[in-house]
Amino acid sequence: MLKLLKKFTKTEWTFAFLALIFIVFQVWLDLTMPDYMSEITTLVQTAGSAMSDILIAGGKMLACALGSFAASFCTVICAAKIAANFSANLREDLFNQVQSFTMAEIGNFSTASLITRSTNDVMQVQMLIVMGLQVLLKAPITAVWAIAKIAGKSWQWTFSTGVAVVILLLVVGTCVIIAMPKFKRLQKLTDEINRITRENLTGLNVIRAYNAEDYQEKKFEEANHRLTKTQLFANRTMAFLMPGIQLVMNGLSLAVYWIGAYLVENAQGMDKLSIFSDMIVFSQYAMQVVMSFMMLVIILVIFPRASVAAKRINEVLDTVPSIKDGPVTEPDTGLTGEVEFRNVSFRYPDADGDMLQNISFTAHKGETVAFIGSTGCGKSTVINLIPRFYDVTSGQVLVDGVDVREYDQKALRNKIGYVSQKATLFSGTVRSNVAFGDNGQEEFPDEDIVNAVYTAQANEFVEKMTGTYDGYIAQGGSNLSGGQKQRLSIARAVCRRPEIFIFDDSFSALDYKTDRILRETLAKDCGQSTRIIVAQRIGTIRDADKIIVLSDGKIAGMGTHDQLMKDCEVYQQIALSQLSKEELA
Ligand SMILES: Nc1ncnc2c1ncn2[C@@H]1O[C@H](COP(=O)(O)OP(=O)(O)OP(=O)(O)O)[C@@H](O)[C@H]1O
């Protein structure tokens, strides 16, 4: 928690200092009120007192109460401002940190947990700051000040207040020790609820199609029940606190009056009056002491959960992304659009064995290099190493003659137009999806957007959309068909005018005719760019300059279609499973 508080900015410290001033002022006013009460008590008991004197003392007491209210209001405003600013900065830090994570780190935390950490966990810390600033500062100041005021009045009264505080601490300590482990579990269980809800929402169609609503509901119910049970246990434990504190407070009042009665009875003449008014004042101060401990208890209810949340936030902020920027922004090798793999092997984090073994090939400028192979043989894994979604385990991946690990990541990705296997679109318009991101140059001109849409064969449906290029795209492109989404994803890559295109099975949802026309226009409009294509269909890659056949993470053959048809058995099998001998001839 302290580590997070180091993130306080100058403005936040200034507001914290202001809050402290308001708190000291409020405590002074609160502790001055019993003095006036004592004055009123004495005036009331003294024969011949003037009514105006009582009213003046009462008026001063009222002024103190109003002043205390105003000071408390100002403290709350300061605390709310600090907490809101602080959590906004924290959320931004978390967002930026998660942006810099590689797939490995995101996998480590899980997406659901990262969402809880950026929202719910930040809220827990925010609540602690709002309450903490008011209470953590106010309680000790009030306690010390009030104790100083009551010390020396009567040892019996002071002793009974001391006993009340010790009992209070024992009650609070026991409750916190019992509830603390449950608070730790609460955040984990919130992650779980988040994960199930996300899974449910993203897979809604499949759940309905398979009549799996009951199964999902059961999963949710179980997680919900676990969360509710833990919450109930923690809250029930803490529920003991308030009645416990009330009991101690009432017991203390009783003790003060009982001791007071005994002292008054044994006193003589005017002393009786003075002891009586002391008793009234003392009971007020003693209540202030106990109240300040009670306020600390409120913090103790929030603190365990907030401290767990702070730890979880720090875990994210302290994670060093495994992929770091190198120094190269523009290579001086004189090469463009060249991709080379040198003896590359790769193992996924936590996997037992290498997924890729000894992969070596070169794609020169303007060439089309295609990967084909059975499902799960490692095609996507190979191409994900080029934009450095993962780093190689051994060997080297070079772009324009420079190891990708040497590149500044932005500079490397500016050279690449990547189209993922699952078309990903963002809520917005056609334009905002095509002119997406930054390629290190000026903003994408309208002309480039239109050209890219035409090259990707997307014009045919975009121009029919309401609003055409400003037509609405729903989150994840859910208002488009699979093939339309793929074409817009391709247009997005084309619009960047990259040196290297990476198509990860990006033509699979297109009909054969559109697939062929799209490849032709790509070759015509982007002939200068290198194209690396993963495909399942022989037809898509047949004309490639180089076809690499992958089998179990190893290269089983490399060459043109004709060469492979002659000497690569795996390729022949794939080809014959898709096309007849006549078509292949
Ligand atoms: N993030 C990951 N962590 C661990 N293993 C993974 C991860 N991603 C993929 N794999 C494994 O690596 C293997 C190769 O996956 P990859 O996606 O490269 O195959 P692919 O040839 O592109 O398959 P497809 O044609 O079905 O897309 C698979 O066996 C898969 O289980």
From TrEMBL:
<keyword id="KW-0813">Transport</keyword>
<feature type="transmembrane region" description="Helical">
    <location>
        <begin position="154"/>
        <end position="179"/>
    </location>
</feature>
<keyword id="KW-0067">ATP-binding</keyword>
<feature type="domain" description="ABC transporter">
    <location>
        <begin position="339"/>
        <end position="577"/>
    </location>
</feature>
<protein>
    <submittedName>
        <fullName>ATP-binding cassette subfamily B protein</fullName>
    </submittedName>
</protein>
<dbReference type="Pfam" id="PF00005">
    <property type="entry name" value="ABC_tran"/>
</dbReference>
<keyword id="KW-1003">Cell membrane</keyword>
<dbReference type="InterPro" id="IPR003439">
    <property type="entry name" value="ABC_transporter-like_ATP-bd"/>
</dbReference>
<feature type="transmembrane region" description="Helical">
    <location>
        <begin position="239"/>
        <end position="259"/>
    </location>
</feature>
<feature type="domain" description="ABC transmembrane type-1">
    <location>
        <begin position="17"/>
        <end position="305"/>
    </location>
</feature>
<keyword id="KW-1133">Transmembrane helix</keyword>
<dbReference type="GO" id="GO:0015421">
    <property type="term" value="F:ABC-type oligopeptide transporter activity"/>
</dbReference>
<dbReference type="GO" id="GO:0016887">
    <property type="term" value="F:ATP hydrolysis activity"/>
</dbReference>
<keyword id="KW-0547">Nucleotide-binding</keyword>
<dbReference type="InterPro" id="IPR039421">
    <property type="entry name" value="Type_1_exporter"/>
</dbReference>
<dbReference type="GO" id="GO:0005524">
    <property type="term" value="F:ATP binding"/>
</dbReference>
<dbReference type="InterPro" id="IPR017871">
    <property type="entry name" value="ABC_transporter-like_CS"/>
</dbReference>
<dbReference type="InterPro" id="IPR036640">
    <property type="entry name" value="ABC1_TM_sf"/>
</dbReference>
<feature type="transmembrane region" description="Helical">
    <location>
        <begin position="127"/>
        <end position="148"/>
    </location>
</feature>
<dbReference type="InterPro" id="IPR011527">
    <property type="entry name" value="ABC1_TM_dom"/>
</dbReference>
<feature type="transmembrane region" description="Helical">
    <location>
        <begin position="279"/>
        <end position="303"/>
    </location>
</feature>
<dbReference type="InterPro" id="IPR027417">
    <property type="entry name" value="P-loop_NTPase"/>
</dbReference>
<keyword id="KW-0472">Membrane</keyword>
<dbReference type="GO" id="GO:0005886">
    <property type="term" value="C:plasma membrane"/>
</dbReference>
<feature type="transmembrane region" description="Helical">
    <location>
        <begin position="54"/>
        <end position="80"/>
    </location>
</feature>
<feature type="transmembrane region" description="Helical">
    <location>
        <begin position="12"/>
        <end position="29"/>
    </location>
</feature>
<dbReference type="Pfam" id="PF00664">
    <property type="entry name" value="ABC_membrane"/>
</dbReference>
<keyword id="KW-0812">Transmembrane</keyword>
<dbReference type="InterPro" id="IPR003593">
    <property type="entry name" value="AAA+_ATPase"/>
</dbReference>
